[in-house]
Structure formats: C-alpha cells, structure tokens
Amino acid sequence: MKILVKGVGLTKFGELWDKSLFDLSLQAATEAIQDANLSAKNIEAVFVANMIHGKLANQDLLGAAIASLFNIKGASFRVEGACASGGLAVHLAIQSLLAGTYKNVLVVGAEKMTDVTISEITSALMGAGSEAERKAGLTFPGLYALMAKTHMQKFGTTRNHLAAVSVKNHYHASLNEKAQFPFEITEEKALNSPEICMPFTLFDASPITDGAGAVILSSENTPRRRALTPSRWTAGDVYITGSAVATDTVGLAERESLVEIPATKQAAKMAVKQAGIEIADIDIAEVHDCFTIAEILAMEDLGFCEKGEGGKFIVQGTTKLGGRLPINTSGGLKACGHPVAATGLKQIIEITQQLRGSAGKRQVKDAKIGLTHNVGGSGATVVVHVLQT
Amino acid sequence: MKILVKGVGLTKFGELWDKSLFDLSLQAATEAIQDANLSAKNIEAVFVANMIHGKLANQDLLGAAIASLFNIKGASFRVEGACASGGLAVHLAIQSLLAGTYKNVLVVGAEKMTDVTISEITSALMGAGSEAERKAGLTFPGLYALMAKTHMQKFGTTRNHLAAVSVKNHYHASLNEKAQFPFEITEEKALNSPEICMPFTLFDASPITDGAGAVILSSENTPRRRALTPSRWTAGDVYITGSAVATDTVGLAERESLVEIPATKQAAKMAVKQAGIEIADIDIAEVHDCFTIAEILAMEDLGFCEKGEGGKFIVQGTTKLGGRLPINTSGGLKACGHPVAATGLKQIIEITQQLRGSAGKRQVKDAKIGLTHNVGGSGATVVVHVLQT
Known about the structure:
- The structure is a homodimer.
- By secondary structure, the first copy, chain A, is α/β, with parallel strands linked by helices.
- Chain A is 37% helix and 17% strand.
- Chain A contains 14 helices and eleven strands.
- Chain A has helices at 21-35, 53-57, 62-69, 85-98, 118-125, 131-135, 140-155, 159-173, 187-192, 262-275, 292-302, 310-315, 332-336, 343-356; strands at 3-10, 45-49, 75-80, 104-111, 195-197, 200-201, 211-218, 239-247, 284-286, 369-376, 381-388.
- In chain A, the strands form two sheets. Chain A has a nine-stranded mixed β-sheet with strand order 3-2-4-7-1-8-11-10-9, sandwiched between helices.
- The longest helix of chain A is centred in the middle third of the chain and has 16 residues, at 140-155.
- β3 (75-80) of chain A pairs antiparallel with β3 of chain B.
C-alpha cells in the first residue's frame, strides 16, 4: 500500500464560538486542497467524519453538505465510529483509492461541541458507550478510571505516572499554535487539580473542543509541486503504507481484561505488517490519550514497552520531544484538544508535518516512519495507520 | 467489477414494537450469513448503515455494536447519508473488496423509527434537509410537493399519475410477505385519502417503518454451495457489476431545476458504464419512491423514459409486474415500507432474489439485469447499483 498524503489542513482547536461546523470544515478543507495544489473539481469523493452533529444540531447528510461547499458533484459519505470516526474515514477513503475507483479524495473530520451545555455534550458523548453501561450511570471518565484503578492495583502504576503523560503533552502543546491549551503545567498542578473521578483529576482528561482537520489522499504517486509551498515542505513526500481497523465489544463489562485494549494490539499488528516494518522501526506516534491511562495502555498494547511498564516508560522521558520515541508531539487529545471526529485527521496531519519536516518548534529530527492510533469508545474500535516518507 | 452477493437476509418491515434495533440487525444478518453458507468468523469487516439511532436512542458506534453481536473482531464502520445510507454502505463495502483488503464483508442496514412520537421522528428526519430549509419550516413532504407541483405545471403530470405509482406499488406489496402494507388499494382510495401537503394525499407518501436488511458481499468468484438452500436458489449467482455515487446540494433552493435529480442521472450513467451495459438492458429496478413523484422523476432521470413523460409511462403499465420493466416489485418504499438506512439493502436484496429466481409470487420471468436507485435527502446523494446474474 502506498497512498500519498497530498495535502493537509487544520483549524485552530478550542472553544470557537464564532465558527460553525461548516466554517471549520471549509477552512480545513480549503487549506488541504491548496496544500495539495489541486482544484476542488479534481476531487472525486468526499469522506466526512463526524460523530455528534446529528444529535446536537439535527444535521445529518454531512457528506453531501460539505461536498457542496466546494460544488463537488462526485461521491460523498459520512463515516462514524465515535472518537475513531476520523481514522475510519481515512481507512475507507484509502480503500476507494486502492480499488481504483477514485484518484483524489478529500477526507474531513469536524466537530462542534462547545455550543451546548455540559450536560448535553456529556449525554451525547455517552452514545459511544454501551446501552447497559450508560443506563447504569457510567460515563467515559468512569470507564477509563476503572481501567486506571485496575492498572494501578495490578502493576503498581501511580498517579505520578498518569500526571507525567499530562505534563509531557502540555509541554508539546506549548509548542503548537493550533493547540487548545498551548501552555505547560507542572506535575504538582496536575496532581492537585480538582478530582473528576478517582484516580483522575482535571488534568487526566481530554477536553471538549471545536475543530476540523482535512487531508487530500491520492493514489497518484507523482510528488506534489514543491515550489509552491517551500516553507512547509522540506522533506520528501509522505505516504500511508499501512491502515488497519479492529473491533471489540462496546461495553467494558464484556471484556476479559481491564488493563489492555485488544483491538489496539490487533490493528497495530496488521498495519505494521502491511507497511512491511516492525513496531521498533517507528520514530514517532500520535496515540489516543483521551485520558492519561489511555496513553499508558497505548504504549503497552502498541508494543512500545512491556505490559504493565507503560507508566515507568513515560516517566523515563523516552516519549518526550528530544527522546527516542516522541509521542503526541501535537499535544495529544489532552492538550491539543479532542474535537471527536477531527482527532483522527489531526493525528495524520501531525505525523505528515513531522515527516515533511514542517512541524516548526516541535519538529522531531530525522523522523522517517510514524504511526497514528485512534480509538472509538473505550476500545470498541481502533484504527492504526503507518506513514512513511 | 464483479462482486458476489453471497447471502441476503431481510426482516419483516413494519411497526415492530417488540423488536429492538439489535434484534432486527441480528435477525437479518444471521439470515444473510446462513444464506451465504459462511460462519461469522469468516467475516472480516462489518458495514452498518443507520441514520437515526444516535438521535433517537443515543446509541452511536453501531459498527462495533453490531459486529460484536457475532463476536466479529475485524473492522467495523457506520456509514450515513440519510435515506441513502444503505446504498452508500454497500458502495464502500465494495471498495474494500475491490481493494483486496477484505474478502467477505457483512453490510447491515437497520432502523428503528416507530418507538417515538410522530413529532420526534419528523424532527429527526429533517436532519436530512438543509439548515435553511429546515428552519424555514419545510418538511420532506413539502420539499417533494414543490417538485410535484412544478412537474404538474410544466409537463401536465396529474394526481392520477401520482396515484398510479401508489396503486402499482401496493399491488406489488400485496405479493410480498415482508411488506409493511401487503394489500392492494384503488386509485379512488389513493386520491381521496387525507391531504398531507398538496398535491400529496396519504397514499403519496412512504411510511415510518422499523426493519433491517443484510447482505454478505464477497470478492470470491466461487459460487455458493447451492445444495444447502435449493428452494431459494434456482438461478445463477448474482453479482454487483456497477456501483456509483453522485452528490448535489442538500437544499432544493440551491438547485437549478425542481423537476430533475441531477445526481440520479450522474450515478446511473457511471454505474451502467461500469457494468458495460446500456440503460435499455435493465430488466427490473428498485427505485427510491419516498413520494410518488420521486418514482416518476426516477423513471425520467434514470433514462427509462423521456423527461416529463414519467407519469404517462407509469399509467401505461410498463412498470407493473407482468410489464416490460417491473419497477419496485418489493412494493417500494411506499408499500414495502421505508426503514431509512435499511431501504438501500432491501433494494439489493429484492433484485438479488429476482435474479436468483427466488422472488415467489412476485417473480419476474427471465430477469437477468437489475438496477437499484437509493436517494438521500431530496436528491443530495444518489447511489445506483447494477446487478447481473
């Protein structure tokens, strides 16, 4: 598999009360189309990732609605898999390119989450949980807290380990102008912030965010015309070389273990195999840190460290910018923000910019192979992509 | 393109108050898996088409939820494009097979619409409209009534022409045990039923319906083992040979004409070209008759008759069972019922059964080439498939 990431576009993430879902989609997609040096009339299909706009704004049919912003008359789709919607849309767009049906497609992930009350958005997000667990009163902080508590009891993971994820990702976000929270925090601040659901305090949780990301994917292996945007394009072209999806039960109660996400293991194994690499070859990754424990689980389940060692692995500094394997240089879901369906796109965009050498103040040196890891629900759907330059 | 329809399964359509969305999905998918002579463990990906369950039941992530009913750990997706969701899911499933990523995939379309009040479901369905037209107070009966009124003024189409669609489709439904309304009606009854939105009376509109349909699609060109279900399998294997999607504006106000659906023309042209046939080669079709005028527009825009002649074409009897080109032998959306995202699946299933020779009392003789036409919104997204035996 060799799918060219021909163009990328990303809005600022945050509480963007003056922008609609369509404003954000238009901005990200226009930037991606320009970055690809394409005209909208060359785009044959539009894949829109969105979880929540039907519920909150009663607007469905977003594939056609967003395609129409560009007068695109080709195919259009909306893809949903809760917080994995973005990754799933990229995976399906790739299938249509591999099939030879389309040559250039636009994938947009967009979410508008801050225009409603906290109770409305909390309720809407629980659509990604199982009916039984939702009705039993579990929320996502509660579900991930169960995993964190179990991991702490079984492996000796501590609240300091959890805080280290947050401190690292806030440091990365402080170097990213698109981040919702572009500032550093101390371990003390993380540990002493208000309790959300023990063992989590405020800084263990990713926020509610507006934002959009867009990519142009192409089956054409001809490089972009580099002269047009030299400042943003200093390394070689970036290709997606692996794309895999795995599924598990929606409810945690039906799983065998609370300390692993089997779908992460399965998707990673398949994507890495497709790319013809080993997991040890990965130079950089964006992983799904919806809660700090999720990044620890991702380190273990992706195979970056042994099971149970994720907390210690992170405090060693290996995954901080400057370390051997920088993780979530964008700031992650925690500090860059988490506009649900846009997250999968932002991950692809961050890795693309890093491999292009256009990541500015947070540039990782000599990164050649990157990975993205996007999770829906509490591990019901996982999408892993491998990108190479 | 040659994609085998390896198995099909369909629930009864109707007001199924004792069945949940998952009950219906399980039933249709189990039947399709058995019909394909497969085990669930051979299914590598599950595509779920659904429009409305997130809004009405706050359940998203339906790809994983329905895959988990069968303990399927492969890929899972939800695809949405309002009333075209089913056709879009089939199109994307086909892409993944053509790409060579998966060999056997399950596509489920399911909708549970009758458990809420009429005001709730009417509001939820307007998510398929444009924000401006929704806020202006337009409903789908209103949008299609605008098209009908214009067609009547421009081409002399009459209420009798509209009623003929309903009478024919009710006749077909009277031969279909899965239909929501398996009874005949007279032209007089159609014309004198309560007014909905002039020129429409009750019998011009498709109903609110619960139901699910499922198909197993396969890139393997090996025929099914026919011995297992001889009674249901008397003709050859059925293949999808064309699959195309086209897009238009969501709002009617942005269109140039109220008497055509350009996306239907475009999708039909592409699908027929892919299949290597002419539109005149079609023996049978299931078209999207959400309102009677929609079937008239479909006849014209698919190229079965000239623009403006759709009404007269239908009253000639050509499209009635026994005629040269039977249309909507299932009973169509009008009389078989319209569980939104299940409709695209039901269309594929009906044509498959007809081409297999297993359509029972409504069997069309010697049908070799069939077409399905699935519309989202008021023509914003159209999916056309060509099936051949």
